[in-house]
From TrEMBL:
Keywords per UniProt: Coiled coil, Methyltransferase, Transferase
Top-level taxon: Bacteria
Pfam families: Methyltransf_25
Coiled coil is among the record's keywords: yes
Protein name: Methyltransferase type 12
Organism the protein comes from: Paenibacillus algicola
Residue runs in coiled coils: 62-89
Chain ranges of the Methyltransferase domain: 38-137
GO biological process: methylation
GO molecular function per UniProt: methyltransferase activity
């Protein structure tokens, strides 16, 4: 399993792009409207989990990366006691977990579901979600929208700048990615991330991680969701409610199907 950000978790939150903040009010609004307990699968550093806990949402965050959870734990130390009491962290695998609570809202944000490389893993995850969702609960899942049929065109061995940003320490950080390889049969994208820290123009440190993401076509992911006992009620292409046709993402809002 590669997508655990072992070398770069401490830099994960430096991302200044809109895609890294636009989803927070969306999930907060859903959590508030539904009320009750919330579970975020693959919560990472708590980018979304923490703002929801701050707003009084009773939230569980589950992740399989000790490095990401360590960053989350450090951030928790800066929270008020009250907000901390709303947040429960779980070290676990989203394809195989068993919690004693059931949830009104379960969500898998920011394309984390694409870390699951096979249909089998995806279905195991969806089955665990089904088991933990209240009968009248909501399940929300996001993956990126494919731009066209996957092929060799996707590979680009050059370093491309994803973003640059400034850390609290004052250091300047850049993240580049290399689209290293594609497996068109298994529909997997292999990407390297390179983070560089510099101060006053001098390179201070460099960190590398690799990730593998599954490329889902719309109908594949819809089939996986609906064959797992869910009905898709709403589909969006962005967090402002934009349509799938016009947006860059797939955001599916689902509920348990009745009568199965
Ligand atoms: C792109 S990050 C998203 C983190 C956070 N949800 C956010 O929106 O910023 C993907 C996360 O998925 C986690 N992950 C990958 N596979 C997982 C699995 N099988 N079970 C739980 N977490 C997993 C990684 O450790 C990482 O924290």
């Amino acid at each position: 399993m590669e997508n655990l950000y072992i070398h770069t978790a401490q830099l994960y939150d430096a991302d200044p792009r809109e895609v890294f903040s636009a989803d927070i009010p969306f999930y907060l609004d859903r959590a508030k409207r539904l009320g009750g307990r919330v579970l975020e699968l693959a919560c990472g550093t708590g980018r979304i989990t923490i703002p929801l806990a701050r707003e009084g949402v009773e939230i569980w965050g589950l992740d399989y990366s000790k490095s990401m959870l360590e960053v989350l734990e450090k951030k928790l130390q800066k929270l008020s006691t009250e907000s901390r009491q709303h947040l429960h962290t779980v070290y676990g695998d989203m394809t195989d977990f068993s919690l004693s609570e059931k949830f009104k809202l379960i969500f898998i944000p920011f394309r984390s579901f694409q870390s699951l490389e096979t249909d089998e893993q995806a279905l195991q995850c969806l089955s665990a979600v089904h088991n933990h969702l209240e009968e009248d609960g909501q399940f929300i899942i996001n993956v990126f929208k494919p731009i066209k049929k996957l092929g060799a065109w996707w590979v680009d061995p050059a370093e491309n700048l994803d973003y640059e940003s400034v850390l609290e320490s004052g250091e300047h950080v850049t993240r580049h990615s290399i689209r290293k390889r594609v497996d068109t049969e298994r529909r997997l994208l292999f990407t390297d991330f390179i983070y560089r820290l510099d101060q006053d123009g001098e390179l201070v440190q460099e960190f590398h991680d690799s990730i593998r993401l599954r490329y889902f076509y719309g109908d594949d992911i819809r089939r996986l969701i609906t064959s797992s006992g869910f009905t898709i009620d709403e589909e969006y292409g962005w967090y402002d409610g934009n349509s799938v046709q016009d947006g860059r993402e797939f955001i599916f809002v689902c509920r348990k199907s009745t009568g199965i």
